[in-house]
Design a protein that fits this description.
Elements: H1 9-16, H2 22-32, E1 37-42, E2 45-50, H3 53-61, E3 66-68, H4 74-77, H5 87-101, H6 104-127, E4 132-133, H7 134-151, H8 157-173, H9 185-209, H10 221-227, H11 238-269, H12 271-286, H13 297-301, H14 304-316, E5 323-327, E6 331-333, E7 336-338, E8 343-346, H15 348-352, H16 392-409, E9 410-414, E10 421-422, E11 429-430, E12 435-440
Parallel strand pairs: 2-8
Antiparallel strand pairs: 1-2, 3-5, 4-12, 5-8, 6-7, 9-12, 10-11
Length: about 450
Amino acid sequence: MGWPLIGNMWSFLRAFRSQNPESFINNFKQRYGETGIYRTNLFGKPSIIVCSPELCRKVLTDDEHFQMGYPLSNLVYNGISFDHISSSGNRWFRRLTTSSLNQQESLSSYVGKIEEIVIGSLEEWSRMKQPILFFPEVNKISFKVMMAIFLGSATDDTVIATMEKYYTDVFGGLFCTPINIPGFAYNRAVKAREMLVKGIQGVLSLRERKPDDHPNSKRGLVDFLREAEDQKGEKLDDERVAIMLLLFLIAGRESSGRAAAWATLYLHDHPQVLHKAKEEQEEIIKRRPCSQKGLTLNEIKQMKYLSMVIDETLRLRTNIFALFREAKNDTYLNGFFIPKGWKVLVWQSAVHMDPEIYPNPKQFLPSRWDDFIPRGGAFLPFGAGSRTCIGADLAKLEISIFLHYFLLNYKLEQLNPGGPVNYLPSSPDPADNCPAKVIKIR
């Protein structure tokens, strides 16, 4: 259980501030054997770590005994009792959003908007004389996509830019000490959340006052949320809609943007993989009818090798080291007793780096996915069970479109290749945010 009060946080922080975060879980394995389940104390809570595919899958699919257990800051919920994080509420939200995010017709309708954002951003970067910070800039693309889907196509670009600034401050406050005093990150986050809510309310109010200003604009997810009734037969107020937007952005922006950026780096660091991925994209263009402009969902489904590149990136650069669950009641897991209220951390990064499942796990090898289907619980970039990320298909769609246009038309020149990586506060990013030049090649 580690030291009194602080538990194992010192060893956790030491490992994750090094360039070898796997050393934290490997230490448990060396001391106690390859059991796949360990007891510890992290983030001020007694916790169970599970890191075998079977146990990970068991926890993620057992809604009867395990519920969401993230240490989300009050910044997100602002003291509101929000039923939609419960199992029944989760099912309600998933039913409401699935048709908007995952159905083929919906995904197909997003292709054009994502293309427009990606093409415009890449062209802008290539014209810049000074290097860009590649990771934050790719995240901006993801943010624009998320906002377009959530708020609809009629949202002004200046509104999106302003909301992105507020969101960045809010996200930064999720992983810091909650000191609500001017000058501290948490205080900035509190103020930013207030402004973000006001911004959303302003957009919604404008639509109510002038519903015909944009007769051809596409409806956003927010429109479905505001029209729907929750389990109690009540409509969501603007505050709860803002919470939905925050959760939507946290899940979407941080995963798809980061994966697209890392995939680009891996491709440019592995010329043979880059050549093969580019050839596939060129073949798709050659087969296209002359009258067709832009990508189609069917073409994206044909990107088999690029899909392997994306899966390998998601395996290597898991966006968060663990998925947080909590025991709903006293229960047993693999014969071990787990008291009610204990955290259960599904250590997906350990599974993704297991040499028994993925030989040479630290190497970037997209070819390992050729005719390889991992067993249940062995590949968890989007979770599993009823809490599987509802935007997984949308995320892979966005990443595919970004890589398609980057591979065909651009190359990346990093200023500091091979630099150190920050694994905290939440996900792996280059410590310098990857300053680079984007150069147009055709």
